[in-house]
Design a protein that fits this description.
By secondary structure, the protein is of the alpha/beta class. The chain has a single domain, classed as Purple Acid Phosphatase, chain A, domain 2 (4-Layer Sandwich), CATH 3.60.21.10. Helices cover 32% and strands 26% of the residues. The strands form 2 sheets. Strands 1, 2, 3, 4, 11, 12, 13 and 14 form an 8-stranded mixed sheet that branches. α8 links the parallel β7 and β8. About 6% of the residues have low confidence.
């Protein structure tokens, strides 16, 4: 009898020990699996992106009606609400900033269209941080409104943009160009401003020299031009000739603004080494309070994919529409 009790006790002890050992083994295996890095399927279709993607849009104006609608709806985010996902889907968005950013009171708000003050712009300091948030992190300052508040207004603009980490180029008497390294692709952005200075020929000559100087340093040269006749749907012969000179000097792409309407696109086959370069004579408005006809309410966006290896450019075009509540939306 006594032997049977001893045997039973030994068996129970063995079962308990075996169970404990099995539990410890199971526990260690599970903890180890949890700490390991996830296994990546070598046959996955997900590949590293072999291109960068830029989006060019037209004129940005945050005074007058746009200021009113932004304040009414508690911020500039309302203006971008319908297009924010598109802007954020690109590596960089580039636009023309059609006026200075200062802490001065608006003089254009509530003015009569056509009056002098109606075309005298200043943008609220909050605009700079909104640009960064919406991925518009490079702006052209080479236009006919950037000096509306004089040199002081221009310096204020630079300070606000610098604080918000938004880059710029084309400042009068300043930074005509900027070189950006975008995920391994070096791109030079050069500004041409028809409305700065007393001698148009000097501005053209300086721009051509800048293109030639930047060309050996980068993979791509893009010229952002503020030129032409307001509300004209076609470029003048002089503008077309100048665009061709820019391409022949080394520009890989021309983007135009100022007319507030969409201009034509041309593929220029000039010098053999520069054949087939695109010229967008005007992208029209992007954020603006002009609604008096359909031409000024339509804007164009140009998406540029640049292959990291070949530096080949591929394009896509996006249509925008300016609603009367201040918002820009996608047009199907």
């Amino acid at each position: 009898m006594e032997n049977r009790k001893v045997l039973t006790s030994a068996l129970l002890t063995a079962v308990v020990l075996t169970t404990a050992v099995c539990f410890l083994i199971w526990y260690k295996l599970n903890i180890r699996n949890e700490e390991q890095e996830p296994i990546v399927n070598a046959n996955s279709n997900i590949q590293p992106k072999n291109y960068i993607q830029l989006l060019f849009v037209g004129d940005l104006m945050f005074d007058r009606g746009i200021r009113y609608y932004a304040e009414k709806n508690k911020g500039n985010e309302f203006i971008f609400k319908e297009i924010a996902p598109l802007l954020l889907s690109n590596d960089l968005v580039i636009a023309n900033l059609e006026g200075p950013i200062t802490n001065n009171k608006s003089v254009s708000s509530g003015t009569v269209p056509g009056s002098t003050d109606n075309y005298f712009f200043t943008f609220d300091p909050s605009v700079s941080k909104s640009l960064f948030k919406e991925n518009i992190r490079l702006v052209n300052l080479g236009n006919n409104h950037i000096l509306n508040f004089g040199q002081a207004g221009l310096e204020s603009t630079k300070e606000y943009l610098n604080d918000a980490e938004v880059d710029y180029f084309g400042a009068p008497k300043g930074e005509r160009s900027i070189i950006k390294n975008i995920n391994g692709v070096r791109v030079a952005f050069v500004s041409y401003n028809e409305f700065f200075g007393n001698n148009v020929d000097d501005e053209q000559f300086s721009t051509i020299n800048k293109i030639k100087n930047e060309k050996p340093k980068v993979d791509i040269v893009i010229v952002f031009c503020h030129w032409g006749v307001e509300y004209s749907l076609a470029p003048t012969d002089a503008i077309k000739s100048l665009a061709h000179q820019f391409v022949d000097s080394g520009a890989d792409l021309i983007i135009g603004s100022h007319s507030h309407v969409i201009g034509p696109m041309e593929e220029y086959n000039g010098l053999p080494a520069q054949a087939g370069k695109r010229i967008y004579y005007s992208l029209g408005n992007f954020v603006f309070d002009q609604y008096f006809n359909e031409d000024v309410r339509n804007g164009l966006g140009v998406t540029v994919k640049i292959d990291k290896s070949t530096k080949e450019l591929k394009f896509d075009e996006i249509k925008f529409y300016l609603q009367k509540n201040g918002q820009t939306v996608l047009r199907e």
